[in-house]
Design brief:
The chain has 14 helices and eleven strands. By secondary structure, the protein is α+β, with helices and mostly antiparallel strands. A seven-stranded mixed β-sheet has the order 6-7-5-8-9-11-10, with helices on both faces. It has a four-stranded antiparallel β-sheet with strand order 2-1-4-3, with helices on one face. Helix 1 runs antiparallel to helix 4, helix 9 packs across helix 14 and helix 10 crosses helix 12. The longest helix is centred in the middle third of the chain and has 56 residues. The chain is flat. The protein starts with 7 loop residues before the first helix and ends with a helix.
Length: 483
Amino acid sequence: MTYLAPRQGLFAIILLVSFCLQTLLLVISTDQQLSNSRALKGEQMVAQLIDEARLSLENKDRVSLSVIANRYTSEQDVTRILIKDNNDDILVPVGNAPMQQGDTIRQIATNGDAVIGSVALTLKDVSKGEIIAMQWPFVIGTMLLHLLLWLIYGYLARPTKEQINALSRDIQELYRDQYRPVDQRGYDRELERQSTGQSASHLADSQVATDNTDNAIDDEVTNARKFNVHNEVNEYLRTQQNQETGNDTDNLVSAGEGSEIADTDGVASQAASHTSKLSATRSVDSVKVQIVFHDEFNMLERLAPAQRLPYLALCTQLLNQAVTELLRQPLLLGVSAMNEAHFEDNGASVVLKADNSHAKVALAGVMLAKLYLMLNKIIHDKHIELSRFALPAKAGVSDDAQSEPMTHLLQSIGKKEQLLILLPNAGLKQISNHVQVHNIMRPTTVYERECAIFDGANDSLIQRLADVRNAVLMIEDEDELHI
C-alpha cells in the first residue's frame, strides 16, 4: 500500500502562496521599471516637441501645431498632447486621454526670456495584465517549477516500509499498555480470556443492579434536597411575617442561637430592603436624575484646578438653566426641583418632586436627563473642535429608593451618551406614551434586569426638547456676550 507524504496539502498551500508572492513582486518591479523609462521618454518627447513647435506656437498656428502633435500621438505610449498659449488658452488638444488616463508631463515653452506657451503630454499607464502578458514565459516557468517541487516532495517524503512497521509496533505497544493489563504472574493468556468471558455476564448483571441502586439513592437525595429547600423557604417567610407583625426574638438565652438569629435578622432585613426597592407597585412622588462623566482614563482627576473648576462651573450652569427652562413646559406642570445642582468630580444630581397627583415627575426626570445629554453633546463637540478639555456624559433616572443602585449601574454598565431608567410601574406608565425603551441584554443582577435603556421618543417630545435646548444655548450665548 502506498502512503502519501505527511501534510502534502499544507505544502501545496505554501507553494501556492510562494508562487503568488513571486508573481506580485515581478509585476511591481516591472511596473516600476516601465514607469521610470516612460517618464524619461516623455520628458525627451516634450523637449523635442517644444523645439519643433516653437515658431508655430509663437505665431499661434493651430494647423502646424496639430500636424506636429499628431506625429507624437502616433507613439504607442502617448495618449494625449495639449498645447496652450501664453494666456493658458488651449490651442491644440490631440489624443483620447479621457478614455485612457496616465501620467502627465508639463513643460513651459519659452523663446529667450519670454513665455510663449506650454505643452502637456499624457503617457498611458501600463496595466498589470499587460505586464503579466509580457512576462508570460517567466510566469509559466515559475508555476511549473512549483508544481515540480510539490511532486518531488510527495515522492521523497513518503514513509518507507521500515518507518511504517516501526509506527505499527509503537501503536500496538501503546494499545497493549492502555487497554490490556500486564500479566506479572506468568499465567496463560488463553486461560485468562476464558475466565474473563465466564465472569463477564456476572459482572454485567451486578453492574446493572448497582446502577439501579445508585439511581434510586440519587433520586432520594434530590427529593430530600428539594424538600429541605422548600422547608427552608417557608420557614424564612414565616419568620419574616413574624418580624413584620412585631414578634420579638431578643429573649433567647443561648449565645450560639442568638448569633444565628442575628444573622437571620440581618439577611431578612436586607431581603426586605431589596424587596421594597424593587417593589413595582409603589408610587412615584419624586425622582432623582444623576449625571456623571464618562471618564474612562480618569482625565478629570489629572486636570489642573485652573482648568477643572471652570469646566465644572460651566456644566453646573448648563444643568441649572436646563432645569429652569424645562420646568416651564406646560406638559410638566406641577413638577418642581428640590435642590440646586452642583457638579463635582463624580457628577451631579437633581431631585424633582410632584406637587400634586397629576404631575408627571417621572417624565420630567427622563426629559431632563435627555436634555442635558443633548446639551453636553454640543458643548463637548465644540470644545474638542477648539482643542479644549471636555468629557462626554451619561445619565440615570430613578426614584429615591433606587438611587444608590442606579449609581452602581452607571458605573458598571453605563455607556457614553446613554440614559438608564430604573422606575417602578407607575413611573414607567408615565413615560410609556412618550418614550421608547429596551431592556439590558444578558443581565447579571436583579437591578440590571429591572433597568431600561432610553431608545427614542416621539416627535412631539423630541421637538419640545429641541426647543428647550435652543433656549438654553441662547441664554448661554447671551451670558458670554455680557461677560
